[in-house]
Amino acid sequence: MTSLRSYSNDFTKMVFVFAFLATVPLWISSVGLYDYIAIEIIIWCIYAMGYNLALGYTGLPSFGHGAFFGIGAYAMAMYQVHEGGTSLWVGLLLSILAGAGAGGLSALFMSHRRGIYFALMTIAFGQVFWFVAIKKREYTNGEDGLLNLERLPVDFGIFSLDVSSNQSMYFLGLAFFMLVVLGLWTLIHSPFGYIIQSLKQNETRTWFLGYNVHLFKWISFTLSTAISGLAGGLFALTQRSAFPDVMSLHWSGIIVMMTIVGGGLVSFWGPVLGVMFYFIMRDFLGTYTSTWILWFGVSFMAVILFEPHGIAGLWMKISQRIFKMSPGHRLLPPERTLVPTPEPSNELV
Amino acid sequence: MALLEAKGIHKRFGQQVVLEKVNITFEENQLSGIVGPNGAGKTTLFNILTGQHWPDRGKVFFNGKNITRFSRQRVARMGIARSFQIMNLFDDFTAIENIMVALPNVRQRQFNMFMNVPTDSAIQDEAYEVLRRIGLDKVARTEAKNLPYGKRRALEIGVALASKPRMLFLDEPTQGMGSDQMSNLIDLVLKLKEIVTIVVIEHDMDFLVEIADVISVILWGQIIATDAPDKLLANRGVLQ
User: Fold this and answer.
1) In this structure, are residues B62 and B3 in contact, taking their beta carbons and an 8 Å threshold?
2) What are A177-234's pLDDT values in tens digits?
3) Which of A187, A198, A346 sits opposite B184 (nearest CB)?
4) Pairwise CA distance, residues A278 & A257, whole Å
5) A230 and A45 Cβ atoms separated by less than 8 Å
6) Looking at the partner chain, which of A186, A208, A330 has a beta carbon nearest the beta carbon of B72?
7) Which of B164, B188, B204 is the last residue of a domain?
8) What's the pLDDT tens digit per position in B150-200?
9) A103 shares a domain with A148
10) Is A338 within 8 Å of chain B by CB?
């Protein structure tokens, strides 16, 4: 059956990506990269996948998402520095809740807005959170940030895993990446996923099908910021510190660029491609020129001008031509062998 | 009792009065038409009856229940579906996905995270049945944006039909259609008439005469006549 084949295709792709990512620590140093970059990539992949739930699937152009990533990082840092917390699970739970709380609060004011008005409000909220992070020195230590965090062990009760090495930290990030991917994949194929994709395309029609569009936008944005908070918490652990710079407009813009360059608007895996493209440019091109960010900007402009669907969109075009793949690589309902019907179909040509 | 009844509907936008003391009823299992020239207030009336706008004065009753100030999604959930004058589809979805998202089975389980919509066989069966009914089963996996105009119009009706409404409002369904497409649309609407109460807005009187059981004429925001098509055509005042 086509549906089973589609299913297995999707899972094959997923297993392939996970397997490939699991081998990264084995070969990363042999290609001239250091293992810290692998952790950065995996954490930013989580962040970008979460961001794409808002941008790619729900059509919510957020330009202040860095705030929620930063809030997740600060939640982990404050838990350790101010509360003396030692549980990884509590720290990450706080990161998720802080991201979701801040995102949910912002979305209360934004979910009934569309397009440019929504985008402007995300910038405004992002700037407010960033400003608070800088000014509330008693909690955040201002621009100096919160330092000397511990990479808390992964405690399972009967045993615990140490993640102080970069390699083990990478595998912790990979485990969360896999959970996020599986969760998002399930979500976007559920009725919820179809409804948010519907409202992205046509809000009016979605209202008239009986769905509360504002509620779905609110939930989607809040989930997206919860995942961003999780990524932020992991990021704080990785760099053993939390700074306000990731909350800035600049870094909020970077996640938008990564997602669009990778092809998040048309592909589930687009954000992952975008993150890899960004970090590879930074580290490979960065060894030759200090102006690598200029070239990343140029590549972004090229994508907007020539292939708005990004790297994934380009690959789709090629694969549709060569392998006759289904539109958008989405999991589609199977084709039916049509049985004769009592009355002829009414053709409107 | 009428399935839907509007009493004393009054609506103005700024200084412009668009509807004035409109009283209209729609009987169950009938195909009712509303005809009038451009700017007569047809679409505004539709928007009020389907919850898109609220009237300044007057009340709307559906199945005896006052739905005047209901939100559009609440009106939809009660069993009133509509198509639009300007095409309103999910263009990036395939035809079957457009139908699937409109099914009550999906709506009722909108927060069920473990239901996989594209592989759920019950959902597929329902969606294919709707597509077969509107003659689009052969293009089920074609994206809506790649369908020809007539098929897109049919799909729009299909999306409204998929929600299993008690009442279906069609806003100028013949707009932009040639004569062949129009005759196919007449066949489709007549077929649908057997399963759902339909209200059609049109400025094409010939189309309405062919399909409607009763036609209301709207002019300058007021209903000036309501009658069977043949009687209406014999009414000199209306024809003028």
Assistant:
1) yes
2) 999 999 999 999 999 999 999 999 999 999 999 999 999 999 999 999 999 999 999 9
3) A346
4) 9
5) no
6) A208
7) B164
8) 899 899 999 999 999 999 999 988 887 777 788 888 888 888 888 899 999
9) yes
10) yes
B84 in a domain, yes or no?
no
Q: Cα angle at A260 between A225 and A46, to 5 degrees?
A: 40
Tokens of residue A342, six digits: 């009592």
B residues 95..114 contacting A (CB < 8 A): 96-97, 100-102, 106-107, 109-114
The structure's pTM equals 0.90
Same domain, B160 and B176: no
Residue with tokens 């990524």: A231
Query: Of B144, B164, B184, which marks where a domain is finished?
Result: B164
B5 inside domain: yes
Q: CA A25 to CA B128: how far, in whole Å?
A: 48
Residue A177 maps to a domain: yes
The two most distant CA atoms of chain A are separated, in Å, by 76
DSSP 8-state symbol, B198? E
For residue A93, pLDDT beyond 60: yes
pLDDT at A347 over 60: no
Overall number of domains in chain B: 2
Which residues constitute the domain of residue A296?
249-330
Distance, C-alpha B51 to centroid of its chain = 13
Composition of chain B by helix, strand, coil, percent to 5: 40, 25, 35
Distance from CA of A113 to the nearest CA of B (A): 17
B43 touches B86 (CB < 8 A): no
Residue A160 has pLDDT above 50, yes or no: yes
SS3 state of residue B167: strand
pLDDT in tens, A304-346: 899 889 999 898 888 878 776 555 445 566 665 544 444 444 4
Would you call A326 an interface residue with chain B, using a CB distance cutoff of 8 Å?
yes
Count Cβ neighbours within 10 Å for each residue of A49-62 and write b for 16 or more, e otherwise.
bbbbbbbbbbbbeb
The distance of A102 to chain B (nearest Cα, Å) reads 23
Contacts with A56 (C-beta within 8 Å, 6 or more apart), sequence order: A259, A264, A265, A266, A270, A271
Q: How far is CA B225 from CA A1, A258, B11, B12, B43, in A?
A: 56, 61, 20, 22, 18
Do both A215 and A258 map to the same domain?
no
> Domain for residue A346, yes or no?
no
Residue type, B172: E
Supply the ipTM of this predicted assembly. 0.89
**Token pair 């959170």: residue:** A129
Flag whether B144 is in a domain: yes
User: Which residue range forms the structural domain that includes residue B37?
Assistant: 1-79+165-240
Q: Do A332 and B118 touch (CB under 8 A)?
A: yes
The mean pLDDT of chain B is: 90
Same domain assignment for residues B4 and B74: yes
At A316, list the tokens: 């789709």
